[in-house]
Design goal:
The chain is α+β, with helices and mostly antiparallel strands. The strands form two sheets. It has a nine-stranded antiparallel beta sheet. Strands 10-11 form a two-stranded antiparallel ribbon. Mean pLDDT is about 80; it is low at about 350-355 and about 560-603. The longest helix has about 50 residues, at about 405-460. α1 (about 10-25) runs antiparallel to α11, α4 runs antiparallel to α11 (about 325-340) and α14 (about 405-460) crosses α18 (about 530-555). It has 18 helices and eleven strands.
Length: about 600
C-alpha cells in the first residue's frame, strides 16, 4: 500500500523543524557566551532566574489574547520574527574589558624574570611562541612593594643616584619598565617564565640593571603587567568576572540582558501558541503530537551539531570563541520558519465564555495540582542542564584536554545525541509509551531519569564520556514534554487550549526553570559544579519517591475506574471514546464530580 502524506500537518512539521533549527545554534551557547563576556555564574544564574519569570508572564498573557481575540496566527508569526531579530542583535553585544594580567616579578642572585602561573600554561606558552616568534616586548609593571624592596631599588638598582629615594620606603607600590623575551618561554610546574634580557629595566626615567644580591631578602612581588599587546593580554588575562551588583550598573549588561528578554518572550509565545495550534489541527489524535514534535528534535540536532563544529573552526586557537556564524544561522533559519508557518491553516473550533474561570477550576483538582508541582520539579532539573551543563563541560575540558580542546564540537555532539539518540525516538514512541504506561507512570519515570542522569554527571572525569549519558534526554525531555503537552491539552476546557498550554509552560519555566537557575548558580559558586549535579541527583530521587507515594495514595483513596486506574478531573472537557491515548470514564456521558468536572482517565 502506498504511504500517504497528511498535507495538513506538513507546515506544522516544517515549523517544528525550522524553529528548533533556528534556536539550537544560539540558546545552548548563551550561558557560556555570558561567561566569555565576563559575567560570573551567579550573574548567569540570576539572568536565567528572571528570564523564565518573564516567560511565565508572557505565556498566559499572549495565550489569553490568542484565545480571547482569535489572534493565534498573527501572534505566532510575530513571536518568530521577534526571536530571530533579537538573537541576531546579540552578535553586537560588547564584551567587558579584560583586566591586565597578574604576574610575579622575581629578582635574586643576578637573575630576574617574570612569571605567570596558570593550569593551562602549556597551551598559552605554545600560542605565544607561535604568535610572537623571537620578539621582545616592552612592558610597564605596577607592583606591590615592601620597605626592603625600596632599599634594593635605591642602592642596587639606582646606585643611590636619585635623591630622597629612601623616602619611598612607605610607598606600597613600585612602578618600573622592563622587557620580556618571547623567544624561549620556559614552562615549569604550571608556570611560565619570561626572561628579562640582560636584566635591564627603567626606573624613575633611568636605565638600570636589576641587581638583587644573594645576601638580601628574596625580591618577589605581585604585579600587573601592561605590554600594550592585545593578544598577550587575551592569552594571559582571565575574563573579567563581574558580580550581580556590578553588572546592574553597566549598559553592556542591560543591552545583552534586554535582547535575551526579548528573545525569551518571542520563544515563549511561539512554543505555547504553536503547541495549541498543533493540538487544534490534530483534534482527537493527541497521540500523534510526538510525531510532529520529533521534527523539532531533528532540526535542532542537525544544526546544533553543525554550529558547534563551525564555532570551533572559526575560532581557531583564539582564547575566546567566535559565535558570529550561529547568529547568522538563527536569523536566516527563523526567516524560513516564518514563511513555513504562514502556510498553517488553524481555526479555533471551541470558544470559552469565561477563560479565566474555566482554567482556574483546574486548581480544584488534586491530580492537576500534583501535575503542576511535577512541572516545577522537572523545571528545576531542566534549568541545570540548559544553563550550566556546558559550563561544567568546559571546566572538565580545561582540566582533561589541555591544549587539544574541541569543546564546541563536543557541545554540538551533546546536542546532536540529545536530539537524535534521545528526543527523536522517544517523541516518535511517546504516543505508544503513554498508552502503555499512562501519564502518571510517565511522570515518575521522568523524575527517576533525572536522578540517574545527574548522578552520572557528577562522576564524570573525561568530558567526552558524557555522550552516552545524553541518551537519557529521551526520558528527561522527550517523554516529559510529550506528557506535559498531552496532559495539558486533554484537561483543558474547550476554548482554553492556548491558555492552558501557556499556563503549564509558564509553571514549568517561570517557576521551575527560574528557581533551578538561581539555585544552580549559587551552588556552582558556593560548592562546585560536580557537587551541584550530585545534590540535584539526590533531590530528584527523593522527589521520585514522594511522587510515587502520592499517586499510590490517591489511587487507593481517590476515584478509580473499573480497571482500578486513577482519574483526573477535566473542567467541562469531554474526550471522545475513540481517542487512542485516553478514554473517558465509562459512566453516563454527563456525570460530574462535586466540583463540576468530568472524569478523564489520565493514569
Amino acid at each position: 500500500m502506498k504511504p500517504t502524506i497528511n498535507k495538513e500537518l506538513l507546515p506544522m512539521k516544517a515549523h517544528y523543524f525550522l524553529f528548533n533549527a533556528g534556536t539550537a545554534p544560539v540558546v545552548p551557547f548563551m550561558p557560556t557566551l555570558a561567561g566569555q563576556l565576563g559575567y560570573s555564574p551567579a550573574v548567569v544564574g540570576t539572568m536565567y532566574m528572571i528570564l523564565p519569570i518573564i516567560g511565565m508572564l508572557a505565556k498566559p498573557l499572549f495565550g489569553y489574547i490568542a484565545d480571547r481575540f482569535h489572534r493565534h496566527r498573527s501572534l505566532f508569526l510575530g513571536g518568530q520574527v521577534l526571536t530571530g531579530i533579537a538573537f541576531f542583535l546579540i552578535m553586537f553585544v560588547p564584551g567587558l574589558e579584560k583586566p591586565l594580567p597578574m604576574v610575579e616579578f622575581h629578582c635574586h642572585n643576578g637573575v630576574s624574570d617574570v612569571r605567570f602561573c596558570t593550569p593551562f600554561g602549556e597551551c598559552v606558552e605554545a600560542n605565544l611562541e607561535k604568535y610572537y616568534g623571537n620578539r621582545t616586548l616592552d612592558c610597564e609593571m605596577h607592583c606591590e612593594a615592601q620597605p626592603f624592596m625600596w632599599d634594593v631599588v635605591c642602592k642596587d638598582w639606582l646606585l643611590n643616584s636619585v635623591e630622597n629615594c629612601s623616602a619611598n620606603r612607605t610607598n606600597p607600590y613600585l612602578d618600573f619598565g622592563t622587557s620580556i623575551s618571547m623567544k624561549a618561554v620556559v614552562g615549569e610546574t604550571g608556570c611560565m617564565f619570561f626572561m628579562v634580557p640582560h636584566d635591564k629595566g627603567l626606573v624613575a626615567g633611568k636605565n638600570v640593571t636589576f641587581t638583587c644580591p644573594a645576601g638580601k631578602d628574596y625580591f618577589k612581588t605581585n604585579c600587573t603587567m601592561d605590554c600594550r599587546e592585545n593578544y598577550l593580554k587575551e592569552q594571559l588575562a582571565e575574563s573579567a568576572v563581574i558580580n550581580t551588583s556590578t553588572a546592574m550598573g553597566m549598559s553592556e549588561f542591560w543591552f545583552f540582558f534586554g535582547l535575551l528578554i526579548v528573545s525569551w518572550i518571542g520563544m515563549a509565545v511561539v512554543v505555547s501558541i504553536g503547541d495549541a495550534i498543533c493540538f487544534g489541527i490534530l483534534g482527537e489524535r493527541h497521540h500523534l503530537y510526538g510525531k510532529q514534535r520529533l521534527c523539532g528534535s531533528l532540526g535542532g540536532g542537525i544544526f546544533a551539531l553543525l554550529s558547534g563544529v563551525l564555532v570551533d573552526k572559526m575560532s581557531g586557537s583564539e582564547v575566546d570563541k567566535n559565535y558570529t556564524v550561529v547568529f547568522w544561522m538563527a536569523l536566516i533559519i527563523m526567516g524560513f520558519d516564518v514563511f513555513a508557518s504562514s502556510k498553517l491553516k488553524h481555526v479555533q473550533t471551541h470558544l470559552s465564555t469565561n477563560i479565566v474561570k474555566d482554567v482556574g477550576q483546574m486548581f480544584l483538582s488534586v491530580r492537576c495540582v500534583i501535575f503542576f508541582l511535577w512541572c516545577v520539579a522537572i523545571g528545576l532539573g531542566t534549568a541545570l542542564i540548559w544553563n550550566f551543563l556546558f559550563i561544567y563541560l568546559e571546566q572538565l575540558d580545561k582540566e582533561f584536554e589541555g591544549c587539544d580542546s574541541s569543546i564546541k564540537t563536543l557541545e554540538g555532539l551533546v546536542l546532536g545525541i540529545q536530539a537524535f539518540g534521545g528526543e527523536l525516538p522517544f517523541f516518535f514512541l511517546s504516543g505508544w509509551i503513554l498508552k502503555r504506561i499512562g501519564h502518571v507512570n510517565a511522570m515518575s519515570l521522568v523524575l527517576f531519569g533525572f536522578g540517574v542522569r545527574f548522578i552520572l554527571y557528577s562522576m564524570l572525569q573525561n568530558p567526552w564520556y558524557i555522550l552516552p549519558i545524553e541518551l537519557l534526554n529521551g526520558v528527561t525531555f522527550g517523554i516529559f514534554y510529550a506528557t506535559m503537552a498531552s496532559y495539558a491539552s486533554i484537561v483543558a476546557p474547550p476554548g482554553t487550549e492556548a491558555t492552558m498550554q501557556s499556563l503549564v509552560g509558564a509553571i514549568f519555566e517561570g517557576v521551575g526553570v527560574s528557581m533551578g537557575s538561581l539555585i544552580g548558580g549559587l551552588l556552582f559558586e558556593s560548592v562546585s559544579a560536580r557537587s551541584t549535579f550530585e545534590i540535584f541527583g539526590i533531590a530528584a530521587f527523593i522527589i521520585f519517591v514522594v511522587h510515587v507515594s502520592l499517586q499510590m495514595f490517591l489511587q487507593r483513596n481517590g476515584n478509580t475506574d473499573e480497571n482500578g486506574k486513577g482519574t483526573v478531573s477535566s473542567a467541562s472537557a469531554s474526550v471522545p471514546a475513540s481517542s487512542t491515548v485516553e478514554s473517558v470514564k465509562p459512566k453516563e456521558s454527563d456525570s460530574k464530580d462535586a466540583d463540576g468536572f468530568r472524569e478523564v482517565d489520565l493514569s
